[in-house]
Design a protein that fits this description.
Layout lengths: L2 H5 L19 E5 L7 E5 L12 H11 L7 E6 L7 E6 L8 E6 L2 E6 L2 H4 L3 H13 L5 E5 L4 E5 L8 E3 L7 E7 L4 H11 L5 E4 L4 H14 L3 E6 L12 H7 L5 E5 L7 H9 L26 H9 L4 E5 L2 E5 L9 H27 L8 H21 L14 E3 L13 H6 L5 E3 L19
Parallel strand pairs: 1-3, 1-11, 11-12, 12-13
Antiparallel strand pairs: 2-3, 4-8, 4-10, 5-6, 5-9, 7-8, 14-15, 16-17
Helix pairs in contact: 2-8, 5-6, 10-11
Length: 455
């Protein structure tokens, strides 16, 4: 060993691998496709127009996105198949055994029959007849088919499955087989997400109210993404309450934004999302109002029609000053789309930041201690992210009102404090803290009082 190495021995560590950051600017269009994977990615210079795996609707939707002057670099397409009704087959053993019980529990209700071979001479066909009669009379939303020694149960509506299991008291041998699985936009989205969940905006080529409602329910349950749905349902611009915008408003769905447009095939929702999603939330926040979508014609609405649409928290696309623009960019909950994006951005990035820091310490063979100094590590992380949110326009800086300053509140190790660490959390090494900021909002309407005077 040389003297210089003896005196100074430097060891360099590369640190922890960087975690994958969520793609908060990536749209996914769910539609009819024939590629084998669930998800494929497309860029503007891809020859998607001649891709035989894509439906006409998907090609048009992609074209509308990439026609925008500013657009996302990549769009994902999720393969969706036609709706299917759940269909199962039940086959009791043949022959049935005297005194054995056969049957199913459907939607929580038992339908069972005890074979009476010795007394009534029951055969397998007799047991099937009894069960078919019982289930038919039970008022379940299913259709029964008696096949002799077995029977089929099919859901009445595709996408509305029934639950089933062996009856609670069944002790006879029987075989239940799924002949056709339930399928709808809901099940398809779950399979899409399972294969590739790195996307944020959901779009669907279907404008069917049932599909929109199911996709909206899925997105609300998912709780991590936003769905921009387009409809030409004339009921949206009327006083009724059964149209899709009214239904989603009644559901207070804070993750779906409905936009009305009289021409489904111009793909307003896709063009709008492709444009707005290009705004990187790490760098800037944008309103979803006043967007001109290239290639989409403006609707002509009456004052009352506009009022009904906006009152249902849906958006319109009309001419303002000779330019076709969107207004007002709300979710069905009444909140603005950009508010939801800001909240999701903060939650996602804080989660990623904390995980990355834990990995970094471990990679250095260190740990973040459960002390005030350790807590300060996370305070600094979160405050740094909140300050980035201020610079990007998500939050106010609090300079005009100290009550609106961003904040981080850590628990105290002092058991007598107002916010002490619990013994259970300390033993489990769980740090719970809170933080917050005030949304910056945006200007959507201007009222000017101008005064002029004579000289």
């Amino acid at each position: 060993m040389s003297l210089d190495t003896y005196v100074v021995n430097a060891s360099i560590s590369l640190g922890a691998s960087l975690i994958t950051r969520a793609g908060l600017g990536t749209p996914l269009i769910a539609g009819a496709a024939t590629f084998s994977d669930r998800v494929q990615s497309y860029a503007a210079d891809d020859d998607y127009a001649n891709d035989s795996d894509l439906s006409t609707e998907l090609k048009a939707a992609l074209a509308r996105i990439f026609a925008q002057t500013i657009h996302v670099s990549t769009v994902k397409v999720g393969r969706v198949g036609a709706d299917q009704k759940l269909d199962i087959n039940l086959a009791p053993e043949n022959p049935v055994v005297d005194g054995k019980i056969y049957g199913l529990k459907i939607n929580g209700t038992n339908y069972e029959y005890t074979a009476d071979v010795a007394g009534a001479g029951d055969t397998t066909a007799d047991v099937v007849d009894e069960l078919v009669t019982a289930i038919t009379g039970g008022g379940e939303p299913v259709t029964m088919t008696d096949n002799g020694n077995d029977f089929d149960i099919e859901a009445d509506v595709a996408g509305v499955p029934f639950t089933y299991a062996d009856g609670d008291n069944v002790d006879g041998t029987q075989t239940t087989t799924v002949t056709t699985a339930d399928r709808s936009i809901s099940t398809e989205l779950s399979e899409i997400e399972a294969e590739d969940g790195d996307w944020y905006y959901l779009l669907t080529t279907s404008r069917d109210e049932t599909d929109i409602n199911r996709a909206a329910d899925w997105i609300a349950s998912d709780g991590q993404r936003i769905y921009i749905a387009q409809t030409d349902d004339s009921g949206v611009k009327g006083s009724g309450s059964s149209d899709i915008a009214s239904v989603l408003k009644a559901d207070n769905n804070g993750r779906v934004g409905v936009i009305f447009h009289g021409t489904d095939t111009e793909y307003l929702a896709e063009g709008l999302t492709g444009f707005k999603a290009a705004a990187d939330p790490d760098q800037q926040s944008t309103t979803w109002a006043f967007a001109n979508v290239v290639g989409v014609s403006a609707d002509t609405l009456t004052t009352s029609e506009r009022a009904y649409i906006l009152g249902k928290y849906a958006s319109v696309y009309e001419s303002a000053g000779g330019v076709a623009v969107t207004f007002e960019g709300k979710l069905a909950s009444g909140k603005y789309i950009d508010q939801r994006i800001s909240a999701d951005w903060l939650a996602t990035r804080i989660k990623e930041d904390c995980l990355q820091e834990l990995l970094n310490y471990s990679a250095r063979n260190e740990k973040i201690p459960y002390t005030d100094n350790g807590f300060a590590v996370f305070t600094a992380l979160v405050m740094k992210r909140l300050q980035q949110g201020i610079r990007a326009g998500h939050f106010v800086d609090g300079s005009d009102n100290e009550d609106e300053l961003p904040w981080v509140t850590m628990p105290s190790l002092d058991p007598d404090s107002d916010n002490p660490v619990t013994t259970e959390d300390r033993e489990a090494r769980i740090l719970r803290f809170s933080c917050g900021a005030t949304l910056a909002g945006g200007v959507h309407r201007v009222v000017v009082n101008a005064y002029v005077e004579t000289s």
